[in-house]
C-alpha cells in the first residue's frame, strides 16, 4: 500500500513538472459552448443520483481557447469531414443483399435522432450491452450480408461519428433498467476504481482525484464520453471510445483489454452514465 501511494506521488510529481503555476491554478473554463451561434450544448449539469461528484463537466471546458473555438464552429471543426464521409457510407450499397443503411432506415437522419444519445443499450439476443459500433456490425451482417468492420476501420469511425452527430445537443441518457444493464454498471464501476499497471493508477485517480490538474501539458478532465468519437488534434484524426479507453489504460503501463471485450463494454456503460445529462458533442475536438 505504501508502495502504491509512493508510485502515484512520483508519477504526478514527474508528470506535473511541465505545467506552469499559472496553468496549475486554472480550472475548467466558464465559457458556454454554442455551436454556430445557434445550438447551445449542455456542457455542465447536476450529476445523477449516486455520482461521486456534484457536477458533471464536459471535457470541452478543459481544452484551450483555440481548441474550444474549433468545436464551436462546424466549418472549422475537422471532425465534420468524418460526419460527411459517414453520411456517404450510410447511403452506399454494400454486401450480398444489395442494401445500404438508408434502404431500411431512410436518408434524412430522422431515424437516427436520439439514438446516439441512448447507447449503450441492452442487446437481448446476445445477453450483453451493445454500442453503436457493434450495432452497425450487427446490421451489416444480418441485414446487408456484408462483413463486419474491424475495430477502428476508417469507415467504422466515420459511420459511428455520423450516427452520433444526428443527436448533437441531445442529453446523454443510458437506461439502466434494461435487461442486466445494472450488473454491467456495477462491473464498470469496480473497474473504474481498480488500480492497475506498473503505475498503479485507476481511472478515478486521474479523472476524479486529480481532475482539474495538469498531467504533463494535458489538463485532466472528468473523462466523459459525450463527444465520442472525438477529433484529436494530436493524432489529426478521429479517435473511437474504446481506443481512448485503451490509451488511458496503456498510460498506467497495464496490459489493455481488447476493444468490445466485457471489460471495455462495462466501462462504456458506467462511464457513459457518469456523464448523464451532458449533450452529445460528436464530433468533439480534443487535444
Ligand atoms: C434490411 C434492413 C436493414 C438494413 C440494410 C440496415 N438495418 Fe439497421 N436495423 C434494421 C432492423 C430491422 C433493426 C431493428 C431490429 C434490430 O436491432 O435488428 C435495425 C436497428 C438498427 C439500429 C438500432 C436502432 C435503435 O433503436 O437502437 C441502428 C443504429 C441501425 N439499425 C443502424 C444501421 C446501420 C448503420 C446500417 C448500415 C450499416 C443498417 N442499420 C442497415 C434493419 C436494417
Ligand atoms: C494517468 C492518468 C489517466 C488515467 C489513469 C486515465 N486517464 Fe483518461 N485521460 C487522461 C488524460 C491526460 C486525458 C486527456 C485530457 C482529459 O480530457 O482529461 C484523458 C482523457 C480521457 C477521456 C476523454 C475525455 C474527453 O472529453 O474527450 C476519457 C473518456 C477517459 N480519459 C477515460 C478514462 C478511463 C475510463 C480510464 C480508466 C480505464 C482512464 N481514463 C484512466 C489521463 C488518464
From TrEMBL:
Q: Which UniProt keywords apply?
A: Electron transport, Heme, Iron, Metal-binding, Periplasm, Signal, Transferase, Transport
Positions bound to heme c 2: 203, 206-207, 248
Assembly and partners? Answer: Heterodimer of SoxA and SoxX.
Ligand binding (substrate): 244
Major subcellular site: periplasm
Reactions mediated catalytically: L-cysteinyl-[SoxY protein] + thiosulfate + 2 Fe(III)-[cytochrome c] = S-sulfosulfanyl-L-cysteinyl-[SoxY protein] + 2 Fe(II)-[cytochrome c] + 2 H(+); S-sulfanyl-L-cysteinyl-[SoxY protein] + thiosulfate + 2 Fe(III)-[cytochrome c] = S-(2-sulfodisulfanyl)-L-cysteinyl-[SoxY protein] + 2 Fe(II)-[cytochrome c] + 2 H(+)
Name of this protein: SoxAX cytochrome complex subunit A
- Asked if the keyword DNA repair belongs to this entry, the reply reads no
Q: What is its EC number?
A: 2.8.5.2
Give the record's GO biological process terms: sulfur oxidation
Identify the species of origin: Roseibium alexandrii (strain DSM 17067 / NCIMB 14079 / DFL-11) (Labrenzia alexandrii)
State the Gene3D superfamilies in the record. Cytochrome c-like domain
Identify a single GO molecular function assigned to this protein. Answer: transferase activity
